[in-house]
Amino acid sequence: MFALPFLAVGVWMLWSVGGGFIDAWQMRSWVQVEANLVRGGSETRSGDDSNTYEAYAEYTYSYNGVRYTGSRVSLAGGSDNIGNYQQDTGRRLQAAAGGNVVVYVDPEEPARSIIDPQLRWGLIGFKSIFLLVFGGFGLGMLIFVWRAATDKDTDLPEFRDAPWLLNDKWQTPTIRSGSKAAMWGALAFAAFWNLISAPLPFLLYEEVTRKENHLALIGLLFPLVGIGLLVWATRRILEWRRFGAAPVTLDPFPGSIGGHVGGTIDLGIPFDASARFELTLNNLHSYVSGSGKSRSRKEVAEWQDSMVAYAEPGANGTRLTFRFDVPEGLTESDSKRDDSYHLWRLDLRAQLPGTDLDRSYDVPVYATATTSHGLPERSVQKAR
Prior knowledge:
- The chain has helices spanning 3-26, 85-96, 121-147, 157-161, 179-197, 200-209, 221-243, 377-382, and strands at 31-46, 51-63, 66-70, 100-105, 113-114, 174-175, 248-250, 255-256, 260-267, 278-289, 296-308, 310-314, 317-325, 340-350, 357-363, 365-366.
- By secondary structure, the protein is α+β, with helices and mostly antiparallel strands.
- The strands form four sheets. It has a five-stranded antiparallel beta sheet with strand order 3-2-1-4-5.
- Helix 1 crosses helix 3 (121-147) and helix 5 (179-197) packs antiparallel against helix 7 (221-243).
């Protein structure tokens, strides 16, 4: 319900922008006819904090011996203050009143006519901001809710004995990182910020040049931050394109408190004996502190260990092998997430030529006191 109004604004803007493109496409076949401009100009409508303008016209023309009257000026109806189009068009129409003007007429329905059938790209860009920001937010939220996992009955025997199966991402020993979601999140946030701040340079230009309000230049910080966000999003995209999914395969599964958290990671990059792949295993407590608008989520590491994974040539490029010895008495992973929960996170970092590797895996770790069986002991011992 919260997402629907945002989606409705996006759909409305999509209809408005799409309708303009359809009209412009259809009007390519309209014919030019000389018309008599009875009157023309622009009207000003005052609002609470700004004025909007609308060019108007009334003209008469003949087509196939039949006389018609028209009043449509441009593709987009109504008033606006995007650029100076309405005022400039109104001044030209006012100057030409009483004379002749070229209009475009639909040959199949001659009563339909227009003076300017061209698209206004500035207006389309302005509407597209609302289309992408509001529509994208509403649609994204609906998709997120639709795809959210339904609650499972924790009292069922299969979940009592294997609580990690409550998490749909922990059904097999192969666990994917959150890199893809982070990439899309970075791209969406960068796009959102830049769409919001895109009109600022144009507004600031008028403030500085016409009103000499040089303090308004502070507003340029928003587009500059937007450029930084685009760089950040680009790095996330390049990281994903270079390393792909790079899932971790746990052995044992799940990871074990009082036993081992180990496994392998296959990277689709050529083997480089000089590369160091650093792994950090964290037992974290995530909780919300504060109240009202001052609420914030924090994470505290209750236990942590690090090593350099053993790297060797693999079937798809490079294979990493690791194994942590986890002491008893630590907190298990929580399958459900609320204001306070515990999680185990495996971080993988490597500084490589070109794009660095940066991955985080949310892995299941429970007090099973089991050890790994399929990892080569030689590889485990060489992991530092």
